[in-house]
């Protein structure tokens, strides 16, 4: 049988067998996978404050309105938990990796090297905090076809994911280019720093709104003044016209009747 | 590891698959080196490849097909501890330094120690002095580098990704050496050495696939 056909058949078999076995062998009670999942999840959550700059991820900051370029990669890695067959889980890892290359490509002109890729993958894992990540990786390593895991593109991506997790587990101040004190501060006040940042942002937004409100008020006041002066000048013109219409030939009576006339026009207007 | 695929029955065609890890500091030009080899491009505006982290190349050496997978590894200091995860099952390693940068050569020495510790003599090592187009600014002497390579059982090469010098030779030579290693193991296996050991180190015959399935915990038998 040709090699390709054998490989295809093995893949079909794997998918068939593992889709059915998934619910019994995934994160089995006999191992401490569940504990490790929770530990990893907590670890990632405690590192929420890590920025792309600290990880030296190729990143172009295009303002808060623009979406994170790594968002498609984050979505892909989260999807991994929903798949059953190891090869389908690996597909998610590959999809995530290709999306990372796209994102790196949009931030950098040269092709991505391993350092770029790995730092971006670490960032993506930290943002995504993928559900049951440890269990999913163990499941793929235990039940996936060995050749898919060790060689080829998929193998490369999976190896890098293992590296990313190892890095996150051992991450310390030096790895992020921080002093030990700064690192401790971030770890202790991770949540507080986040909330503080948010408060700062809200305050800035409020300030901006106040500024715009003042501007609107100012404009309204000037419009009001303009309207008033326009109404006055129109009134004056109307009086003049009326006076000239009623008494075209008696300039001597102009002042008295002009006052009368203005009174009538004023009443009409109010 | 290397896979030796043979068709059952008629015309047996062999195909080797080798994994080669690429090591070196950030600025030694390892990315340029592989892009030159796999795409024949250097700092080209027309490079369409998004990435130079995982590249493959198909070769034909003395009538045998060889699939080469080149794994770039993250070389920054902060990723140092992750090395062993990358090295697993690799048949060869290319350790690149910049001839104008003494530090990058010291880093190569560290990697050699680590690789030998982990994979013993199974792995073919190539130490590569890149950027020989900057000969005037050379800071690592040829004698020192070649002497060191010999002392650790590695081969030394001089390359320039910019001028496309020495790169074809480097990869061709490495492939030949990996083939020799794989063939030697195959003979060992033929002499009754542990099948599992040999399979793990590199050579595997595709018709033995059920064995791989057993190792993976599957329960089906095919063949």
From TrEMBL, chain A:
It comes from the Eukaryota. One of its GO terms (cellular component) is endocytic vesicle. InterPro entries: VPS9 (IPR003123), Vps9-like (IPR045046), VPS9_dom_sf (IPR037191). Gene3D superfamilies: 1.10.246.120, VPS9 domain. This is VPS9 domain-containing protein. SUPFAM superfamilies: VPS9 domain. One of its GO terms (molecular function) is guanyl-nucleotide exchange factor activity. Keywords: Coiled coil. Residues 192-226 form a coiled coil. GO terms for biological process: vesicle-mediated transport. Residues 34-177 form the VPS9 domain.
TrEMBL record, chain B:
GO terms for molecular function: GTP binding; GTPase activity. GO terms for biological process: protein transport; Rab protein signal transduction. The keyword Hydrolase does not apply. SMART domains: RAB, RAN, RAS, RHO. Keywords: GTP-binding, Lipoprotein, Membrane, Nucleotide-binding, Prenylation, Protein transport, Transport. Its main location: other. InterPro entries: P-loop_NTPase, Rab21, Small_GTP-bd, Small_GTPase. PROSITE patterns: RAB, RAS, RHO. It is found in: Cleavage furrow; Endoplasmic reticulum membrane. Belongs to the small GTPase superfamily. Rab family. NCBIfam families: small_GTP. This is Ras-related protein Rab-21. It comes from Denticeps clupeoides. The lineage of its organism: Eukaryota, Metazoa, Chordata, Craniata, Vertebrata. The gene is RAB21.
């Amino acid at each position: 049988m040709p090699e390709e056909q054998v490989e295809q058949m093995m893949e079909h078999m794997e998918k068939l067998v593992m889709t059915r076995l998934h619910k019994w062998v995934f994160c089995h009670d006999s191992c401490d996978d569940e504990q490790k999942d929770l530990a990893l999840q907590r670890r990632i959550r405690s590192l929420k404050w890590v920025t792309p700059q600290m990880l030296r991820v190729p990143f172009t900051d295009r303002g808060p309105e623009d979406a994170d370029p790594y968002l498609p990669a984050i979505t892909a890695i989260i999807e991994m938990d929903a798949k059953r067959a190891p090869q389908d889980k690996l597909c998610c890892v590959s999809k995530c990796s290709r999306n990372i290359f796209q994102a790196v490509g949009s931030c950098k002109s040269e092709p991505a090297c391993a350092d770029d890729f790995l730092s971006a993958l670490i960032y993506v894992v930290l943002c995504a905090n993928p559900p049951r990540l440890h269990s999913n990786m163990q499941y793929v390593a235990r039940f996936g076809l060995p050749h898919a895991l060790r060689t080829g593109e998929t193998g490369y991506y999976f190896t890098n994911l293992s590296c990313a997790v190892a890095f996150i587990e051992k991450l310390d101040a030096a790895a992020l280019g921080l002093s030990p004190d700064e690192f401790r501060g971030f770890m202790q006040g991770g949540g507080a720093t986040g909330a503080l940042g948010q408060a700062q942002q809200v305050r800035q937004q409020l300030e901006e709104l106040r500024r715009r409100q003042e501007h609107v008020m100012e404009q309204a006041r000037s419009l009001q003044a303009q309207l008033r002066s326009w109404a006055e000048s129109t009134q004056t013109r109307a009086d003049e016209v009326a006076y000239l219409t009623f008494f075209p030939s008696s300039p001597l009576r102009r002042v008295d009747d002009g006052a009368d006339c203005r009174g009538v026009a004023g009443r009409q207007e109010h | 590891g290397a896979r030796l695929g043979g068709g059952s029955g008629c015309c047996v065609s062999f195909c080797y698959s080798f994994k080669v890890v690429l090591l070196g500091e950030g600025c030694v030009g390892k990315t340029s080196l592989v892009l030159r080899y796999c795409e024949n491009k250097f700092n080209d505006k027309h490079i369409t490849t998004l990435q130079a982290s995982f590249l493959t190349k198909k070769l034909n050496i003395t009538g045998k097909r060889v699939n080469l997978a080149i794994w770039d590894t993250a070389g920054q200091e902060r990723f140092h501890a992750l090395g062993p995860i990358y090295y697993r099952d690799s048949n060869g390693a290319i350790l690149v330094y910049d001839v104008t940068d003494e530090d990058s050569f010291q880093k190569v020495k560290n990697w050699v120690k680590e690789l030998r510790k982990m994979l013993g003599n199974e792995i073919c090592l190539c130490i590569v002095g890149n950027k020989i187009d900057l000969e005037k600014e050379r800071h690592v002497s040829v004698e020192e580098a070649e002497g060191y390579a010999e002392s650790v059982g590695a081969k030394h090469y001089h390359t320039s990704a910019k001028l496309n010098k020495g790169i074809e030779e480097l990869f061709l030579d490495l492939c030949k050496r990996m083939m020799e290693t794989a063939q030697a193991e195959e003979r060992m296996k033929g002499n009754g050495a542990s099948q599992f050991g040999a399979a793990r180190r590199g050579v595997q015959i595709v018709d033995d696939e059920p064995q791989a399935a057993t190792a993976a915990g599957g329960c089906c038998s095919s063949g």
